[in-house]
Amino acid sequence: MTHARAERMLSALLDNELTADEVTALRAHVAGCEVCRAEFERLSQVKRLLAALPEREPPSSYWTALRTVPVQHAAPVRPAPLDALRAVFRRPAAALAAAAAVVLLVVLPLAKGRVDRLRAAEIGVDVYVHEYALASAYDPFADRAYLGLLIGDAGRTLLGEPRPQPGEPR
Amino acid sequence: MRWRHAVSAVALAALLMAAAPAWPQASSRTLPSAEAVVQAVLDAPALIDYEGTKVMSAVRGDRAQTVTVLESYKRPGKLRLEFLSPESVGARLIVDDGATMWQYEPTLHIVIQGPSFVGGRSTDALRAVVSRYRPRVLGTEEVIGRETVVLALQPRGTGGERRLWVDRATGVVLRTEERDRAGDLAFSAFFTRISYSLNLPSALFRFQPPAGARVFSFYLAGDPVTDVSKVRALAGFAVIAPQTLVTNYTFLYGATAKYGAFSAATVTYGDGVSVLSVFQTPSRRMAFPQAGTVVSLGGGRTGRLLDLGYFRILMWEAGGLRLAAVGLLAPAQLIAIAEELNR
Question: pLDDT tens digits for A84-126?
Fold first, then answer.
């Protein structure tokens, strides 16, 4: 497994999204790669911190108050934006935690989804070649040696290695 | 000592005769029928072992890739390929025991394990070939000192012609040429030497990963299903899968394929000889691939075409899906398929 590929898969390893073979391969790489080990440790720490955040039920008085709000006020009263900003700056630790939570819960999954879409487009063509060459075993006149070459090249590229380029100009 | 040579020669002749192909052994002046030659090619993998050196060339754009490989075949369905040149694939070893394919890349010290690609054929293969293709015998020619029958396979629909130089004594294809619709050579392969019935040792077709090599499993596709509704259930979205495509391709099977961030439903069609696969992925899961060149699909739509010489990939978007049709067909035919699927 290449370093670039391993780096991309660390987050998935942490979230238990990999197959057993991928886990084995990735763990083998991480064991011998200081950069990946450090990155994995960093990601693990973020996950631990998030998991440590307590989940609290709002007090019952909150629900009562919430239900009475529409009755008491024709329109919801919102604090002025400036007041809200001041309130946040009065509690910088809370502001920081809230920002971090937004980043972790909203931005990162969105970014991961975007990265995955781009990655799917990047590797898709090699999967097409790999699977089509395998399907061509149906063809009794297909050259098996050439199918082997195509399957081999695609497999190698999917592992992150550069595709062997065609040789001489025609 | 001379009698020993004589015995060896008789034994070899007996072996070759035992492994004779299905067509009648007429004199070299009488040409066998095209159907008999096709049947001999279909039968050869069950009758003949061989070992030889092959040179393959595929044209891709303005470049040609030429690869030399040592090819060994042992019945039933065992194949060993040792790539000799060019350097980029040199020393690659592929061993297919009929159930599992092993690929060893010595330069990277990695092993890839995947499904076999030396599959068998149904007993109806001849009928399938003849119903979709027009096989013709063009004559005889000598290839590496052996008499061959030149067989031309022209699709009854549209498509390029395939020519095979079939060893008259064994049914093994010694030379292949594939041309596109314009008649330009797209692929060629020929043996520079071949030996038959050597009783190749079974150990040649067994693979043991070298010590310390990293092994990767490449079973990307799930089990194939032959019911379109099951393909849709597996994929979890409305897979486009008509029963026939461009009149002569019929639905064979569907499956799902996954590798890392990529996943797709695959629908595979066959015309009796070649296959055509259509891959489909919801657009929300996959950006549009940037490989290949932009082509017009009609109706103001565009797609991307990647010509890999031996086959072509047409990629486009329709109904919230990224689609890719992969086959031996010419670009115009792939575009016709895209338009058919868009309807």
Answer: 666 666 676 777 777 777 777 777 766 777 788 888 998 899 9
Domain interval for residue B35: 10-205
Query: Complex ipTM, two decimals?
Result: 0.88
Interface list for B 138-157 with A (CB within 8 A): 153
Q: Which two tokens stand for residue B219?
A: 């079973």
DSSP B221-279: B---BS-HHHHHHHHTS-----SEETTTEEEEEEEEEEETTEEEEEEEEE-SS-EEEEE
Q: What is the CATH number of the domain that holds B250?
A: 3.30.200.100
Is B189's CB within 8 Å of A118's CB?
no
Task: Tally the domains of chain B.
Answer: 2
Of B56, B289, B324, the CB nearest to A143: B56
Q: Which residue of A has its CA nearest to B119?
A: A137
User: Tokens 């978007």 label which residue?
Assistant: B317
Flag whether B296 is in a domain: yes
pTM: 0.73
**One domain, residues B229 and B335:** yes
| CB-CB neighbors (< 8 A) of B61 in chain A | 166
DSSP string, A12-23: HHHTT-S-HHHH
B123 close contact with A: CB closer than 8 A: no
